Amino acid sequence: MSRKLPITFLLITVALDSIGIGIIMPVMPDLLIELGATGLSQAATWGGAMAAVFAVMQFLFGPTIGNLSDRFGRRPVLLVSLAAMSVDYIIMGFANSVWILVIGRIIGGITSATQSTASAYMADISSPEEKAQNFGLIGAAFGVGFILGPLLGGLLGELGPRAPFFAAAALAAANTIFGLIVLPETVTDAIRRPFSWRRANPVGAFRHMGKLPGVRRLMLVFFFYNIAFFVYPSVWAYFTQERFGWEPSMVGVSLAVFGASMAIVQGGLIRVVIPRLGEHRTVILGFSITVVAFLIYSLAYEGWQIFVLAPLTSLGVIAGPALQGIMSRTARDDQQGELQGILTSISALSVIISPLMMTNVFAYFTREGTPFYLPGAPFILSMGLVLLALLVFSGRKRLYSYKP
After folding, report:
1. Which of 147, 158, 352, 391 has the least C-beta neighbours within 10 A?
2. What is residue 287's predicted lDDT score, i.e. its pLDDT?
3. pLDDT value at position 313?
4. How far is CA 79 from the centre of its chain?
5. Is there a domain that residue 404 lies in?
């Protein structure tokens, strides 16, 4: 079978993962209040708790799902995950208590193997030179979903706070059927690896994969970069309101512009940059651009500057797929699922840590009586983290270089 249909399925799957998160965001406050939250503040508290629970489940079970895909194949793991996602949204749509929503987020976090397993599948069908570029397609699909999710959620929310959940369930179910038809298995007996509980947990997986040449250092780089990057969802709404007085609609527009720019870069421009520069220099270039962008964000004083900066900021995301490509080519064919599961765990851990760090830094530098007023302080912190990632990355031994 041509690679086009399986790749189309993978990109839709990743986009649905992003859409599924964003589509429920606009209606979650109203639904939580309907289910018993006494006001917006308590609804926000519950919403934050559910986001943390989701991320913790991803962290704990990412390696398990990755190891399962190395043993039983990408196809069954992807299809079961999508079917479970569909059922999960139906359960949440019919929820009659806040605790049902919490259980739904637990299930969703455990089964959210779609992006990591999709990345492993993409690695299976890509040549070493194509891996980083094709990981860019995964990132682009996530960016498209990041744009469409909140927009669809806002529109469907007019029908009621439960409508987006049922729409997300229908999309996941439809993609499951599509996958049943077009998705062949890529894990053959030649690369199939026995399942081991010692490697199917975050600690064991980190210890095992850390034995690969240079991967431990690269995972640390990936960790620092993800904490820094998650400054956007952590404080963007607060920062733009404090600095520019933006309304929620303008915040949404700015995020959509950033998501569109990111999708263009990861889906198109990266396929030109990596063959010319190679993965190593692409990572350095991406980190350097991100450092400059964070510095300018921290000092921005007019709203229009944010939109002018969007193309520059989006250029920085070329570092992520290039870094992922280096690690993927370091791992053997029978370790791709395990590696992607670990990266999912690292991202989830970053989602837990970054909001705590960034919101507290923002609160300290904007509170009454602060010794130095600086709403952009979280971006200064993120800039420091990316500089640290760049320092650690630059000190590694280059094992691969295929640039012509």
Report:
1. 158
2. 96
3. 80
4. 20
5. no
Burial 143-155 (b: 16+ CB within 10 A, else e): bbbbbbbbebbbe
Q: pTM for the whole thing?
A: 0.75
CATH code of the domain in which 95 resides:
1.20.1250.20
According to the model, what pLDDT value does residue 401 have? 43
Determine the pLDDT at residue 37: 77
Residue ranges in the chain modelled with pLDDT below 70: 1-2, 40-41, 44, 113, 200, 248, 396-404
- Of 395, 191, 379, 164, the closest CA to residue 291 belongs to 379
Asked if 162 contacts 90 with a C-beta cutoff of 8 angstroms, the reply is no
Q: 23: which DSSP letter?
A: T
284 touches 310 (CB < 8 A): no
DSSP code of residue 318: G
Domain that holds residue 366: 4-184+199-394
Query: Got the DSSP string for 192-258?
Result: -----TTTSSHHHHHHHHTTSTTHHHHHHHHHHHHHHHTHHHHHHHHHHHHHH---HHHHHHHHHHH
Is residue 266 a contact partner of residue 140, using CB atoms and an 8 Å limit? yes
Instruction: Give the CA dihedral 364, 370, 371, 377, nearest 10 degrees.
Output: 40
CA 377 to chain centroid, in Å, comes to 23
Count of domains for the chain: 1
The string of DSSP letters for 127-147 reads: -TTTHHHHHHHHHHHHHHHHH
Report yes or no: 396 and 219 within 8 Å, Cβ to Cβ. Answer: no
Check if the beta carbon of residue 328 is closer than 8 Å to that of residue 123.
Answer: yes
Q: Would 192 be classed as within a structural domain?
A: no
Burial of residue 77 (number of CB atoms within 10 Å: 0-12, 13-18, 19+): buried
Report if residue 190 sits inside a domain.
no
Q: Tell me if 86 is assigned to some domain.
A: yes
Sign for the CA dihedral angle at 209, 211, 217, 218 comes to negative
